[in-house]
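Handout, page 2. Input:
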Amino acid sequence: MIRTPATATAARTLGAAFVALTLVAPAAAQDYEVEVLAEGLDRPWGMAFVPGTGDLLITGRGGALMLWQSGTGNVVPVAGAPSVDARGQGGLLDVAFAPDFDTTGHVWLTWVDAVPGGSTTHLGRGTFDADARALTGLETVFRVSPGVDSRGHFGSRIVFHDGHLFMSTGDRNFKDFGPDHIAQDLSSENGAVIRLTLDGAVPADNPFVDTPGAAPAIWSYGHRNIQAMAARPGTDELWLAEHGEAGGDEINVVERGGNFGWPLAAYGVNYRTGQPFSPTHQPGDGFVAPVYHWPAGRTDHFPPSGMAWVTGDAFPDWEGHLLVGNLFHRYLGLFAVDGQTVSPPVRLLDGQGLRIRDVAVGPQDGLIYVLADGEGAPLVRLAPPDAGG
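Output:
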């Protein structure tokens, strides 16, 4: 296990594609060290702590399920993963353990596979046996409808919150920026947050259950591509971060039945032309505005993936802060949050060359676990300098 002080220049390479450079600790905040827990992971996408342990179940976009064992540091394969379509941004995506795992053994997954019309995000659950290193009885519970002939923008995070399952979806990279865009179509579950019961059924109090022609599973809509989502501890708030188009990335607080505007109100610009395709959010426009957003362009933007809230005693200066991974600029954003006012991010892991795919806070140790993106990617952990180990 290798530790890299946050205030020093790292002198090692994290595999062939990951060069560690200088890390700068946040001002007026505690330092941290970076521990490399595993290397050589194949396109990892999601991770979740096995309840009652410090082990992590990790997904790989190519279709592999992996178990990182905290006691040994080994990564071992897990049998029983679904077949996937891993083209483009598809593959095996998120993973989350059910709140009743102790009695049911259920773990939930999202993945992409073929359907009539193209492909779509699937949501399913199976029974996980850590000793047997196997997932059994996997069943598909929900498929995002309609399927689309596209290889991009699938979402898709899973969050258990307020007694329900929430899943994020993407707009499948539709480029029709007008009112007929798929994310503005209530009959489509693409570009939305989906809310289900813990059995996968549509709750009777979902906002569009009684709306003719609307998909009843939709909780909010008008989203572009949500790859970061987490419930805020101690509140009833569900937060997410979504990709904009050529900038305009957003952090949003989800509202029941809310239309978040994509692509009729946005801060980005057209990738091809560099020109705005819509007005920005304005008071009274009927759309839910983000609590934080980035400007157009790629100089200062934040393509997000993975989200977690800092809890526990390991990082007392960061308690209640929001963590979101940045793919393009390759750092972990640490955001101070006061109510729903979000401060600009402090850059953790800046200079490490890591495209951040997912982040989690250990329920037992309060340390920050970070999953990088790509072939041969590492799993790393942020710890206080005096954490030992």
